[in-house]
Amino acid sequence: MRFSFLLILVSSFISLHSSYSAAPNILFILSDDHSYPFIHCYGREEMKTPNLDRFAAEGIMCRRMFTGAPQCVPSRATIMTGRSPVACRITRFSSPLPRDEITFPEILRKDAGYFVGCCGRTYHLDGSGRGPEASARVFDEHHMVTFKDRFNYVDASGQENVPAKMNEFFDQRPKDKPYFLWVGFSDPHHAWNSGKNPPDPAKLKVPGFLPDLPGVRSDLSAYEGEIEHADGDFQRVLDIVKERAGLENTLVIFMGDNGMAFPSGKGSLHDPGLNVPLLAWWPGVIKPGGDSSALISGEDIAPTCLEAAGLPVPERISGVSFLPLLTGAKFDKERQHIFAERGPHGSATFNESTTASGVDYSRCVRSARYKLIYNVTPNLRYTPVDSAGDPSWKDIVKAHEEKVLATEFEDLWFTSPRPVYELYDLKEDPNELHNLYGQKGLEEATMELKTALQKKMILDFDYLPLPIAGDAKGKAQAKKNPNRAEQFKSLDTDHDGKLSRDEFNAKRDPADAAAWFKARDVDGNGSIDAAEYTASTVPNPPKH
After folding, report:
1. Residue-by-residue DSSP string for 392-456
2. DSSP assignment, residue 172?
3. What is the average pLDDT across 321-349?
4. What is the pairing mode between strands 179-184 and 25-31?
5. Dihedral (Cα; 433, 439, 442, 444), 10-degree rounding
6. How many CB atoms lie within 10 A of CB 458?
7. How far is CA 485 from the centre of its chain?
8. Bridge partners of 374?
9. What whole-number distance in Å separates Cα of residue 240 and Cα of residue 254?
10. Which residues pair with 480 in a beta bridge?
11. What letter would DSSP give residue 126?
12. 337 pLDDT higher than 80
């Protein structure tokens, strides 16, 4: 049954910007592997998503929501706890959420009397697959499956069963209690087969982070068809809520759990892997027609929902409430940076054939203008998560082998080893195709991002090496030798702010030069910048 959001807006007794007295019901709908901007209202003109479009028009759409990880399990952990995947100890894909990590629905249940539940696609936080038997025994012996204790109602039977399970949830919910319900969609998770009339591959626009190849167009069409299918299921969810509980004082949030299973998407710390749709609607509280480009993290969902329910935010939550953005109040705590992590994906063990799709230890920090990616396992060859057998990647590999793939895509996906650091100017290069790390004039921006990432990693007790190294005495920055600064200038014959091997090796014994070049090239990017050359200490100096 269709309904008009405007009727609810008109009939609501709560005026815009007024204080809301009763704790709202909260409906949280999560699509799977859904990248921004893949909804019609975000600018994908070929897509047919009328229900999401109407919902966005009568609420607020956010353009810069970034998940805490480009993978289903750690991203969901971040959303539910308000903490990074590293902080809540769920960077290994098959991990269950530790019992002492408290989800925000548990707080709603305990402190505000909410009836809380989840249904649809698996919520992923009781362990993503319990095999082999050696693992299953540990889960059983140590009671590591916890969500039936955390929530009043738990279902993970799939998107197709959502209507029936929602009715079960509302049958069990006491009528005098507010509720929180998390509805999980499988769409548009790979494989893409639910779209009945997807956009014409020849007529869609290929985004700039992908090459325009037939296989790419074919896969994009199938992917967009899945989102169109989700649009219909989204409306059915709202219809059921309206019939069973009403929508008059209900905060409805729709977002993606992480990015699309395409190259540079799912499993990648580039924006297509992290930037997801975020739409919110709350009659009488959220003004229709909102459109925000504020930076928002997956960590921020938990504190926002807690504050909407009138509850304090626990200190252990690192997320920032964006409730002021929803209510039209002054947003004093708007983020300057978002952070994300990447670890193992899936449940396979490590072997000599493992590529970055299976294991990739990396971290990133992003401001409104710049993105820094810190790759700690750069020697693992890049392959896309979930879609390496699809026409898109096959066409890309074929173009690479035939030496007709554009240089920027060659550098991005086929450089081995990959750079330890990647720096992108998102204003000039929104598709993140040109790594600027080490280029002259970006020292300040680079240090700002490294410093922010350093702080985040320390506060989250991250186990990876920090991006800013200390010298032997533990100082944050190594002292510089002024004489070496002059030497650097004289050796930098092409004046590009870095020394190539040939420049560094000038007038040196070849064997000695090779050893010292390797030692000075701390970030392993194949060149030596001024900071590396002038540092008074070298982490692993060659032995004489």
Report:
1. HHHHHHHHHHTT-S-HHHHHHHH-SSPPSEEEEETTT-TT--S--TT-TT-HHHHHHHHHHHHHH
2. H
3. 94
4. parallel
5. 130
6. 10
7. 40
8. 363, 421
9. 16
10. 535
11. B
12. yes
Q: Given CA atoms 298, 303, 304, 305 in this order, what sign does their dihedral have?
A: positive
Nearest to 385 by CA among 23, 35, 3: 35
Residue 36 tokens, joined = 């921004």
Please name every residue paired with 292 in a beta bridge, in sequence order, or none if there are none: 62
Q: Which two tokens stand for residue 73?
A: 């399990």
369, two tokens: 């203008």
How many other C-beta atoms are found inside a 10 Å radius of the C-beta of residue 337?
19
Give the separation between CA 13 and CA 249, rounded to whole angstroms.
10
**Running DSSP on this structure, what letter comes out for residue 159?**
G
Cα(130)–Cα(420) distance, rounded to whole angstroms?
33
109 φ/ψ angles, rounded to the nearest 5 degrees: -65, -45
DSSP track, 295-360: -EEGGGHHHHHHHHTT-PPPTT------HHHHHT---TT--S-EEEEE---SSPPP-TT--TTT--
* pLDDT at 4 > cutoff 80: no
Which residues, in sequence order, are CB contacts of 288 under 8 Å at separation 6+?
Answer: 9, 57, 58, 59
- Scanning the structure block, which residue is given the tokens 């930098």? 492
What pLDDT does 533 receive? 87
Quick: pLDDT tens for 189-241: 999 999 999 999 999 999 999 999 999 999 999 999 999 999 999 999 999 99
Structure tokens at 401: 């082998």
Cβ contacts of 463 within 8 Å, gap of 6 or more: 86
Which tokens sit at 132? 């082999």
